[in-house]
Write a structure and sequence with these properties.
The protein contains 1 helix and 10 strands. The chain is an all-beta fold and 141 residues long. The chain starts with 12 loop residues before the first strand and ends in a 9-residue tail after the last helix.
């Protein structure tokens, strides 16, 4: 009895980040071009911080959420389709998990600078880069 191997699938298409939080990223992709040469496809999702070894998730879905990420870090994600015939070419993207909400500024004070009441000076202690969890940007409402 002989067994015929399935064809090696092509690369996945349109690999995209569709959502992210501080600790997770959701990606989706379109399957490789259809072929009569294979019946079932497994996707290998390899993800890791840039320049570090990654972790592999196997899935039959064309959408996956990758958890346990570090906030605000870049991750390289590679997806490839495979059949019993072998692994297809990889498709990759770089994504960022979201930043955490920063700490609030400390020692906020206001000083009225004109007697007419049209001007106000606001001051505060700047956040450290660690407290800001990235680049500090201040919004006044």
């Amino acid at each position: 009895m002989s067994t015929t191997l399935e064809e090696v699938p092509g690369p996945v298409k349109n690999l995209t980040k569709i959502a992210s939080t501080a600790k997770s990223v959701t990606i989706s992709w379109d399957p490789p071009e259809p072929s009569d040469g294979y019946t079932s496809v497994i996707y290998a999702i390899n993800h890791g911080e840039l320049n570090t070894p990654g972790e592999v998730i196997n899935s039959q879905n064309t959408q996956e959420t990758i958890d346990s990420l570090k906030p605000g870090k870049p991750y390289y994600i590679v997806v490839s389709a495979s059949t019993t015939g072998g692994n297809g070419n990889e498709t990759g993207i770089i994504v960022f998990s979201r930043e955490k909400v920063p700490s609030k500024p400390l020692n906020i004070s206001t000083i009225k600078t004109e007697w007419s009441g049209n001007s106000l000076t606001i001051s505060w202690e700047p956040l450290t880069l660690h407290e800001a969890r990235g680049f500090p940007v201040y919004y006044i409402y």
